[in-house]
Amino acid sequence: MIAVLFAVLTALSNGSASVLQRRAALDVPQTEAMRVSLIGHLLRQKVWLAGIALVIVAAVCQAVALATGPIAVVQPIFVIELPATLLLAGLMMRVRVPRTVWLGVAAVTAGLALGMATAAPGGGSDSVHGAAWVPALILTGVCEALLIAAALATRGNLRAALLATAAAVGYALTAALMKDAMARLDAGGAGALFSSWQLYATAVAGVGALFLLQNALQAGTLVAVQPCLTLGDALISVLYGVTLFGEEVRTGWWVLPELLALGLIAAGCVELARSPLAAGNPAAPARARRVD
């Protein structure tokens, strides 16, 4: 229950940060794409700094969640980040939440529930044994290189989708490294944690994923970014959980309802990302008609 609670808190923080970062990225010139100077432009925007503060909160909550639960359970819960954020935004901005948003929320929620029930993830160890990180890091690096190279050869929403997928790979890797690092903390205390290479690799992977996400948000619409980011993070995290930590998910005929769950989540994310609330431009609340 602790892992689920902190996973939900992580999702809320990450979803809010994603919307804030998207708003900030819209004001950055296209000439700054894939350049370090992009971060310099963003640092001068308060809305982006607020998003980064939420990213830090999310990182702390995620560390607690991964330290107390399997990665295949914790990471998929993050798919609720966008629907929860949009509902909260509608409440805070005092605007009526459109019916399409409620449908998107229902689709994502139903997809998550169906996916967790049918996949039934669990088991595994808290740390990675032996030299299993070596092939994992090599394959991850190759995958990232291919996605970035393909993105640089395209423009618009296709570039955004490819960069968002690359960011998802980075965030999934960050989660796996973080879980392994937290296992060192449990086993040997603070000294073991700060002497582990996994802790510093977590920081590098996280910063790299954040950089890719900023470029994805700048390159295209949230509709192109969010589904790739949300589903990619969940699926790749489960893959890391199974291959590195020995966690288990159901296969066989269970794959059919699992695919249906993914379809529901993807459809819900697309619908939610189209909402004016996600773009940070909610429609003004309807005025009451004057009765003469």
Q: What's a concise summary of this model?
A:
This protein has 292 residues and is an all-alpha fold. It has 12 helices and no strands.
Draw up the topology in text.
Blueprint: H1 2-25, H2 37-43, H3 46-68, H4 71-74, H5 81-93, H6 99-119, H7 133-152, H8 156-194, H9 197-219, H10 222-245, H11 255-273, H12 276-279
Helix pairs in contact: 1-3, 1-5, 3-8, 5-6, 6-11, 7-8, 8-9, 8-10, 10-11
Round the mean pLDDT to the nearest integer and report it: 83
Rg, please? 19 Å
Number of strands: 0
Structural class: mainly alpha
Number of helices: 12
Helix coverage percent: over 70%
Low-confidence segments? 283-292
The span between the termini is 56 Å
Shape from CA axes? globular
Task: List SSEs in N-to-C order.
Answer: HHHHHHHHHHHH
Biggest sheet architecture = none
Fraction in beta strands = under 5%
Describe the model.
- By secondary structure, this protein is an all-alpha fold.
- 76% of the residues lie in helices and 0% in strands.
- It has twelve helices and no strands.
- The longest helix has 39 residues.
Characteristic key phrases:
single chain; 292 residues; 0% strand; globular
